[in-house]
Amino acid sequence: MRTRRILQISLWVAALVWLATFGVLQFGLLPKPQQSSPLAVTTGVAQIGGPFRLESHKGEVVTDQTLKGRPSAIFFGFTHCPEVCPTTLFDLTGLLQELGPDAEKITPVLITVDPERDTKSVLAEYMQSFDPRILALTGSPADVDAAAKAFKVFYRKVPADKGSYTMDHSAVVYLMDREGRFAGSLDKHEPKEAQLRKLKALIENSSPT
Ligand code: NI
């Protein structure tokens, strides 16, 4: 009887531990509420950004560490995207032009969520339509997944016509400061002026002191 009771208690403890762990994980994955200030310090549980290692369409290894020292604007997308990604890249291209010389002080980055099709050469071809300063990154599916997870980016394959597929994905441009810390985001629904202000503030607040 006694062993049975102990077994029962152990099962309950195990269940509670499991629930606690799972609950914490769930909580940790909750999206962060929108910050009103573009450069607000993150206080939420969900940290945006983290370690990743990918390769650019120019053939360089790009990691969270190599991006440090300059602020960056990071966006996840894919070249087969019919609308949102090319629009975002065109908008970014326009914003970089508006920034003038200040555009040199920021690293704009596209990370593919479709590494299967978006090889370095496919990205290199695709990026010819946009500002040459934008880096397009790809890697193994596992490396891309690690990057997406670090940025709490959602993406998933969706079957399309004739055995083809498209991707569902979050379309936020993350603004990261020179230390690689989350510093806000650009929303495609915002006016261009608001986005430009955020980029200028990011560059200004990221200047070495
Ligand atoms: Ni897209």
How many individual helices? Answer: 6
Q: Output the helix-strand order.
A: HEEHEHEHEHEEEEH
Strand tally is: 9
Report mean pLDDT, rounded to a whole number: 87
Lateral arrangement of strands in the main beta sheet: 2-1-5-4-3-8-9
Measured on Cα atoms, how large is the radius of gyration?
20 Å
Structural class: alpha+beta
Small molecules held by this entry: nickel (II) ion
Query: Helix coverage percent of residues?
Result: 25-40%
Main pleated-sheet profile? 7 strands, mixed
Binned strand content: 15-25%
Which regions contain 5 or more consecutive residues with pLDDT less than 50?
27-38
Rough outline: globular
In whole angstroms, the N-to-C terminal distance is 70 Å
What is the structure about, briefly put?
It is built from six helices and nine strands. The chain is of the alpha+beta class.
Textual characterization of the structure:
Helix content is 37%, strand content 20%. The strands form 2 sheets. It has a 7-stranded mixed β-sheet. The N and C termini lie far apart (70 Å). The protein has helices at residues 2-28, 64-67, 84-99, 120-126, 141-150, 192-205; strands at 53-56, 61-63, 72-77, 107-112, 135-138, 155-159, 165-169, 173-176, 182-186. The chain contains 6 helices and 9 strands. It binds nickel (II) ion (NI). Residues 77-78, 81, 84-85, 169, 171 line the site of nickel (II) ion.
